Protein: Copper transport protein
Amino acid sequence: MMHMTFYWGIRATILFDSWKTDSYLNYFLSLFACFLFSVFYQYMEDRRLRIKQFSVSKAPEPSSSVNTPLLFSKFGGRNWSASRFAVAILFGINSAIGYFLMLAVMSFNAGVFIAVVVGLAVGYLLFRSGDEEVVLVDNPCACA
Structure:
């Protein structure tokens, strides 16, 4: 039976039918895996933002004398560099990890929920809490 409310217990099915926990050891190993997966999510997001920052700092300014973000074509105005592809690939990987974490939380097991949230917080603390000096503004226009 699939739970539709949060519950406490060691019996949980996480992501796949084959990933079932039925003992304390299996349950705590699964929680640890969810925790590590969440920390890895924050690490990958940090890598993506740093590559993007590097590519933005190396990108030439648009040739237009007036900054018109709504009229500037992103496809015609930029080179297709390796860093853009790397950022796109990392975005896809990070999106997949994020959806897996969301689906794991949708098992409605409170332990899994706590492991994911604590893993995200620890990963943020380890990898992204120094992002105050890293400011990326894709488009400064609020209407875009």
Summary: DSSP finds four helices and two strands in the chain.
